[in-house]
Fold this protein.
Amino acid sequence: MDFSVVSPQNLSQLRNAIRTLQRKPYRIGAGYTDLLMELRKSDTSDLTVINLAQINDNGLSHIKSLVNHVHIGAMVTATSICMNDDIARRFPTLQQAAANLASTQIRNVATIGGNLCTASPSGDMACAIVALKAHCVLMNVDGKKRVVPVVDFFTGPRTTCLKKNEFLYKIILPRNHKQTQHIHSGFIKVGTRNAMECSVVSLAYHIQVEESGYVIDAGIGIGASAPTIRFAEKAALNLIGKNMQNFTDENRNEFAKKVLTYASPISDVRATSWYRKEVLYNISKSVLV
Ligand SMILES: Cc1cc2nc3c(=O)[nH]c(=O)nc-3n(C[C@H](O)[C@H](O)[C@H](O)COP(=O)(O)OP(=O)(O)OC[C@H]3O[C@@H](n4cnc5c(N)ncnc54)[C@H](O)[C@@H]3O)c2cc1C
């Protein structure tokens, strides 16, 4: 591979680099765990990589906990997410997704921005971000920001709504409901082995429950089950107003069936479509046990 690299030191240099390169082939590089694999397969002779790793900007590289939101910069690594107490306490689904990604070495460099921008249907952190109904903050070369719900960020397998003059700046997680005493939140990943493995099927859930047991809000994301990560809206809505302590087998089956309506998995070397649907059905039911 013989591409050239530019390493902006701040946001304004980054915007200038993108502006200058707009009519030439360029790629953005964050942790490079996906990008290098991709570039290996292509002709890179005329390519410039804009390296984000040396940019000094808190918005891009820090986690900021506010009362109503948590902001996660696109350059925050899976390891930093795993180690953040606020995320572990308020958004366990994301903490578990980050902890389940690949291996320690990969987690130390793999960024949340890269996980979203790769737009793989099996992206682990991306799946949790969908369940959390997060928003993506995109910035263009003029420094103008636009905010899009994460479900609209993915436009197809490995494609996003990012324009040529934009990059992903940060992700905003909305607050949990104030009165929420309990959060039933987690990430279930099924692969062919335990480590260094992309999901065969994954499910992220974030269910907010009142003290009395009633569900007041819910988000369900499914991975590796469709061309993009899907937000299983009807399944999430189906839970609202129900009491977590009184779920029957009938409720669990109804919920799992609704999740399945969002699945259109392919058969590939790792699993058949039939197997993926069976697994998704069963892990969906297990969320409500
Ligand atoms: C061995 C191995 C195992 C893996 N296992 C898993 C796994 O279990 N689960 C999982 O989800 N993933 C897995 N992955 C994939 C990968 O590690 C993740 O998707 C990771 O989060 C990508 O982040 P990165 O910082 O390395 O992105 P990069 O490789 O640097 O970039 C990925 C893509 O995003 C673009 N990009 C990055 N940042 C931005 C930005 N801020 N704005 C615009 N575009 C941007 C790049 O141009 C590129 O197209 C694995 C990869 C490997 C090599």
The radius of gyration is 19 Å. Residues 27-35, 37, 52, 74, 101-102, 106, 110-111, 113-115, 117-118, 123-124, 162, 167-168, 196-198 surround flavin-adenine dinucleotide (CB under 6 Å). Residues 192 and 200 are 7 Å apart (CA to CA). The mean pLDDT is 94.
